[in-house]
Each structure stands twice: as structure tokens, then as C-alpha cells.
Amino acid sequence: MYYYFYLEENNHCSSWHRIKDEIFLSNTYIHFTISSNSSLHFHFFNNDIELIYSTKTIHDLETLTKKIISLKGSPRQVNRYMLIDIEKLMRKTLFFRRDFVKIQLCGDTQSSVDQLIIGNQTLYDQQAFYSATRWLLNNQDLQTGCWFIHVQRNYVHHPHYHLRNPWCSAMAQSQAASLLVRLYSLTNNKEHLLAIRRAIQPLWSSNLTRAYFNNRFVWLEEYPVESATKGLFVLNGCLYALIGIIDANTIDYEPYLSDLINQIIISLEHMLPYYVHSHISNWSLYDLSHITMKSKINSASYSYHLVHITLLQCLRQIFKKTNDSVSQLFDFYVERFTSAIL
User: Fold this and answer.
1) What sequence ranges are listed for the domain D-glucuronyl C5-epimerase C-terminal (predicted)?
2) Which of 57, 64, 68, 202 is the residue whose CA sits 20 to 30 A from 269?
């Protein structure tokens, strides 16, 4: 369903627009772009609550039945799962999962909401996919291929170790490449292919995202520190990066990418034993900072332990038909890490 709202002159709010059909909140997503100094109001009849998305300062007080979600930037594109917003803000489970909704736009004469869409998860996923790929295409550094990150991160116990500033994450680059691979498969647009090539470039052509364990084994760093020999060697970051390179090489084969994949496999074969916890049977480690920075052992949290298992399962499946020995390598650690949670 698509809706358009515009305010009439000398009126701070539009009239309420009631959606004709009852919506099922557990499967309803919204997408819209809202201008500055504007607020979009959703009133739910059965639950008697109002949810407000706003790019302006609202002087109304929040109550038990009225909640305000502040939006930064304008125009601001919004993709939201309504049920999560409501239940998080209300701190309670809704009594009515089906509800009727009316909508109102408030602001000034320049306020508008473009292409408000209320739909199911498939529609939301499509909007999120195209929104993310559009951002990636518009914000990539054309010289390096990076989506540079300007957030500073310091290591309290190791003040002499710093992330490069700005820094380029191998994991982020590869995940972006994987998303663009899927866009290219839909569009066959050469510009999208060039963006994929640029995204992968920092992983093979320079040390922007690389570190070397024992000065020998190449690693793709999620958090690249200034010293390539004193890396963190985050496990999930390198595994995500490897999958992204494989994705890119599948649709745009290059010998140098195949060579990098082989180098990472050799590194994993040598380094995976270091990620097995020395005190907790078959538990995984998040990184190898206890070796490279002489810090305490950084055990993977339960959620990251599951991520490690899932990524290794994925790689096991990828290599199952093409390289049985590599597939068996990943299978060994899948079984080992899985045994810790059974």
C-alpha cells in the first residue's frame, strides 16, 4: 500500500488518514522518506497507542500510550518493523496483534512524506536491499574501494595499539561485495560489477585490511591495527571476508582472487588450532590478541561461538564439491565447536 501526505498552508498537521484494512502487526513493515522538521504519527485503534517518527523536536510529553522515535538527518529514509518498535517502546506485549491504523503528518508547509509503504516482510526486505545497495554505490571511495570507517576505537590495556584512521574493515568490504554480487545478478549492470571489484581490491592489493600471523600467514582483519604484524586476528571477521571473496570470484573469476582464497585457507589450516580454548573444552576464541598483544584470552561469547560454527558450516558446504580436503578441515572444527554446546 502506498500513501502520500502533504500539509495544507497554515495547517500544522494533515488530516488523519485511516487505513481501510486491518493489519497484522507481527508481519507488517513500513518504509518511507520523511523531510526535515516533520513527524509521522501512527495511531492504533485496538491497542489505543500512538507511535511517532520525528525529525523535529516534539514538545509533547511521552505517555504510556504515546511514544516518540527521534530520527536524525533529513531527508531521512526509514525502514522499520512496527511490532518491534511498539513492544520495545511500550515495554509490553501487545494484547491485539491485529489492529486498525490511522496516519497523520505534522510539521510545516515544507513537510512531506514520500512513498509511505506499509507491507509484509518480503516488501520490507526488498526495500532494505535496494536502500542498502544504493548507499553502498553512492558512498564507496573510488580510489581505494573502501567504505572508510571514521569511528575511533582504543584498546584500554594496549594504548600503543591503534586502528588505522580512517580504517577499512575486511569484513565490511566483503559483506558489501556479497550484497553487490546479488544486485549485479539482478541488473547485469557493469557499474555494479566495477563496484564489486573495487570492494575486493583492498583485500588483495594492499595491507589496508591485512595482517600477518608470525610474519607469514596472511589474515583479513575486521579491525586493522596500524601494525600489520600485531593484528587482532578476529576469527569471524576473516571468515566473513573469505565468503565475500568467494562470492565475488564466483561471478567475476580472477586468478589473483583464487590465489588469495588459497592463501587464507592455508592460514586457517595453520591458525584454527589457536582458536580452540585452552581451558574450556572445544570452546572457540574471538581473536588471538592473547598471543599478539599478550592480553588475557578473549573467549567467544555464546552468540559468537554459534557464529563461528555457522560460518564454518557454510565454508564446509562451499568446498564440499570442489575441494574435499578443505571441506574436511572446516568439518573438523564444526564438529569440535558444536560438541561444546551439546
Assistant:
1) 141-321
2) 202
